[in-house]
Records
---
Amino acid sequence: MSQEARKQGDPENDAAVSRRQAFVKLGVGSICAACAGAGVFGYEFLAPNVLYEPSPVVNAGKPDGYPAGSVTQDQQSGVYIVHGPEGIYAMSAVCTHLGCLTAWKPELGIVACPCHGSKFTRDGVKIEGPAPRPLPWLRAWVNEDGDLLIDRSEFLVQKQFVRT
Amino acid sequence: MANSLAEQFATLRDTRVWRSIFRSGSGGTRLHRALAVQQNVFLHLSSVKIRKRSLAFRVTWFLGTLSLGTFLILVLTGIPLMLYYHPSVPQAYADMKDLRFAVSAGVFLRNLHRWSAHAMVLLVFAHMFKVFYRGAYRPPREFNWVIGVVLLMLTLFLSYTGYLLPWDQLAFWAITVGSNLISAVPVLGTRIRFLVLGGHTVNANALLRFYVLHCVVLPLTAAIFVAIHFWRIRKDGGIYSGETKKP
């Protein structure tokens, strides 16, 4: 149909075409809105709101249980409790490379990761290996009952010691 | 016996019941043979006719067919294994041990599943190398190469998700390391890791998520892409047998 013929065409038909276009736009628009909504709903559904994971705060018992010069590894919670000359501090045992659990080697006096061979001093400083950062120190304090508590979710920027 | 087996089979193929299922009926004409392929939902993914030389061993080393074969073995052995395996933290490892030592033929099914999984990864890689070095990825087959890359990724994801299911030390630390690799994705890394694991550590949620991905989501996706892959071989002019277009 030529432009002229369309102009001369019956006005109802013209209106029907524009109405169809409006409905197509409405349809495509609502499908897009539904997809976006499904995306948000999907994300919200897949991200759990309640986690049944162990608490990040662990009770390490009485500080007296850690004699001077000792490095104690708690396998269950993945922390080291080190009693150095300046006091007690807690350090994460989770390797900063890819999250393996490191181990204290008493015969060598170092911390070593079994996965990719990173090695650290008892202060967490990297000696060698692929680990990009030192082992983080964790916030530790003594509560009213005299128990040593360690928060695994809180990394210390400044070194802090628990005096005994 | 008056009739030979072939004649009896021909009679069977002309019965009303058979004809209601396979419409092409008996007969050895080219039309009948073409119809038999064309009217079968599985066979119609492939061509009705192919060049004889493209069936030669040296053309493909049958690597694509062998990949499909391992995939079918994995589906067939995986389903019975699901009947004895509970994807829960207290039971997963014990169920895997039971499959090896207490369930009749369990060790056979489990090992067949495991070795086929290894073989499938190897065969898919070999298939891609073969396609690459023969230049079979070139137009008009370039889109099927892309489908092939998707299938390679699906194969690796299937392999990775299956690795966690025995729930032993090897599995736990492999998935810990692997999921920490996801964290390296810029900006969204830790969020993607949280969604994949359903938590911050490899735990009950992660085991269940990997199980559902391994047994439902990834195999179904792979089956769909395999169907597209085969159909595209036909649509792109059949298996590349080394012909070159005249200028």
Note: The interface with chain A takes residues 173, 176-177, 179-181, 194-195, 198-201, 203-205 of chain B (CB under 8 Å).
---
Amino acid sequence: MVSLALVAGLGCRGTISEPGVTPGDPSGPGGGEGGACDAASLHVPDTPLRRLSHTELRFTLRDLFAGVALPEVDLIGDPRIYGFENNADALAPNAVLVEQYDRAAVDVARRVVSAPADVRARALGCWADTPDAERDCGRTIIADLGRRAFRRPLTAEEQGRYRDLFDAQHMAHGFEVAVRLLLEAMLQAPQVLYRLELGNPAESDGELVALTDHELATRLSYLLWSSTPDEELLAAADAGALSDEAQLEAQVRRMVDDPKARAAVVDFHRQWLDFGRVEDVNKDSELYPSFGDPLRWAMRDELDRFVEHVVFDGEGTLRALLLDRTTFVDDRLATLYGVELPAEGEVAQRTLPADQRAGILTRAAFLTSHAHQQTGSPPLRGVFVLRRMLCAEIGAPPPNADTTAPVLTPEQTNREAFEARTASATCQSCHHAINGVGFTFEHYDAIGAFREVDNGRPVDASGWLTDTDVDGAVDGPVALSERLSESAVVERCATLSWFRYAEGRDAAPSETCEVDALADVFAESGGDVRELMVALAMRPELRYRAATDGETR
Amino acid sequence: MSDEPIRPSRPRPRLRPTRRTFLTALGLGGAGLLLPSLGGRRTIAEDSIPKRFLLLWSAHGTVRSQWKIDRPGLPTDRDVSFDLGSLTEAEMSPILRPLHRHRDKLLVLEGLAQTSALADEVGNNHFVARSHLLTGAPYRSEDRARPTAMSIDQRIADTVRREGRFDSIELGTNRDSVITRERGEVLPTQTDPAAAFELLFPPDASTAEPTVDERVRRERRSVLDFVAGEYERTMPRLSGDDRRKLEQHRDLVRDLESRIGALAGVTCGRPELASAETRFEHFARIASAALACDLTRVASIQMGQLDTAEFGAPAGTDVHQDWAHNAREGAEVPADESAAARMQREDALRWMTEYNLVHARQLAFLLDLLDSVPEGDGTLLDHTCVLWLTELSTGTHELRDMPVVMAGGCGGAFETGRYLRYAQNRPMPQRPWGPYPPIGPAHSHLLVSIARAMGAELDALPMTEATGADGERIDLTGPLAGLAG
């Protein structure tokens, strides 16, 4: 495949003192230097053991105990790498978390046994209404819930250990206590909280170890659903059906179309595009009296609905994410966007004005969270687009840089103030690229309302793209979105982001070619997000792990 | 580094004997107090009193002109010290004034520098400092800078930890915790005082016929024992880092299990948390009670950026952008400063002074609590090493000339009641651009001194040297001179 320089090759990289040099490896996973893909041999780097991310654990509990009113599971935040909360290296256990797991297990177990009888019986596989049935029901729970929780059938030894635990507690405290303690133990088990991939040693060539069907099923379900496999997928794994390419693809396509994929895809975009940021920002209440929690949450909520709409109910493409003008608004957000108001207290679907808005980069939440309290911030907006949409590596500003919001003189526009602030040659080594993107958003104020006038003067939203595959002058945010929607760099960046999320790690330099190939598939599908998910799930690499020291020849 | 001796301090009046004078009376005073091996030479009564470490971390930095204390006639070309005991309240600096009543138990350090940070890769100093301040280790620059080593309180915790107790407790309002483990894994803060309270001071077990919930609670340890066993069984099937991860998890489950067991036998005065008090006051009460009961020997309270309401700044202003960044002083003020800029700067200095005053008052409140618990011949405070560090030296992202306040003698390891001013006469590390003003000793030495005082065998932090602006070698190893008096 032809490799354009599929990364925004900014002159500015990493530290400002060393233009052209990036910490890490800019041309590795991000860059397009990969040699030809060697179709004959699979390359799978060492992959660290993955703990379930907090989202994955919450979704898993939701699916294990469908219908049960589960408690809010309080878990301490994990570090975010490139925005993603599922980076395997970063997800180490710590004392607080281990205690929270324990608490969560206690709370969940209590809720499950006190759920309505039919819900409870479904969640557990049985419930003993007579003393005679208690012992057998304990065994049924171990086998049935155990299989769903462990994502594979329990071994005889495992069943024996849980049986001993249950029997001892049953004897001492009765059935209900025993069931609760059994659940508490299971929910903290390494087989549940970690994705153990022991593989099938018989199918090892010394470098690669084939995963078992159940381990593959687990990879598929956490990739496509951020959750545990359902019964159909487990049954397919039980039957060894996932080793068959056609049956595997049938499962993958079924999963991508399943409603559970919706929450997972929304959650991927939440992390990639930092939806949560708007939850933490504040605005000058004199300038923006309408901005408060109701408007903030309406903005935040719009993003989830928008992504779900575009990927599952709309065109389904990256292009549409950048260009689709569908919105979901309450009365406050409708006022901000200038669209027809919905009935009070309701959220309605609307179409945004074509001359003012496009897709995700023109939405209030993004614009509000990348702004100061009084004014929009071209650097924050520009850096976000470069980093997250173009996967450019940009270092932090130098420590002596003044990163305060400039105070506008009476005759100055916001743009002019930032131009003056970043005018020096040192600043320009990065800000030429940053501002070129950031200035196109000057039509939006600090809460994302559209404006034609800034400080009494017409808004100048002309900008430029530089060192990308779609370089040149760009006038305004809609034009920027259109331009980005034509960029192969953006397409590859989205692919790389999905790859990082899917693998729970950055792409290794040796995987450049694989990411390129995925980007090609993505491009050929017309940027269809669900086709990219299918491609990620169907990668032969997903079926193996690297052999460890003890296993290599 | 600091070969220059700190000048001996004048004798000063004392309100009551401190640990230090007590030890001196026993003939145990002197420089040897820095050595961890001292324990064996103590009296039995003193031996039974553990040393504790308490860290207070606050966001942003100080206003130097309002923080520093100067005395007439002191030279600036070498390290000097003077007594705090004889200072009147008015003679304390505005920011340190609330601490006047504790002056005999303070050790105020002026002039240290985050030298390792200054020598590291250039980046946003908030992130650089968060990585270096407690670790003295290089940072990882990807995305947001992250530390790469264990924070000093955790090194101490690993030294003084006991089975069945909390290794350390992390309290605070700061969600981006600066407390880290070996590889820079961030230990999260408990931000909810009620949750911390419940964790540390669980309700007494009922004696009546147990309910299902009580039975379940009583068997919590059996479940954890079972769970730890499951990790144990799984570990051998993995290798390398994967195995270590599960091992770590297993250990943490075991710790939790043994803590629950041991804590069941601890009788501890539960602190009262009045609803009218601030979150910090709750944290302070929880931390002091936990230290007093010996539930843990290491605690930290991280105070993330205050809200404007907490220090009286106008609502709607941005603490970080409007005030911290504009709190420029001295050489940072441009010669051609406009009248508007000057007004804004003066406002910023005023509000950042108020900002730091809030933390000084908080520290004074905390010291009141620690000093009210009698212990041995003194109080809990005498056996505690309290360290207040600010994230940065100033709101303008400076990393040199840090404001450091210590309190409590750490069981006699440090001579309190003094103000130490370290001269700005050591080389600044090489950086991509100047200026290169001389700086004070590296804060790494202080961290080493404290860790040693707490019993850790530590000679250096991960960054052991730096290169000065003129190519000279800057040694970052070893303790800080002057602390023992």
Note: Chain B has a mean pLDDT of 85.
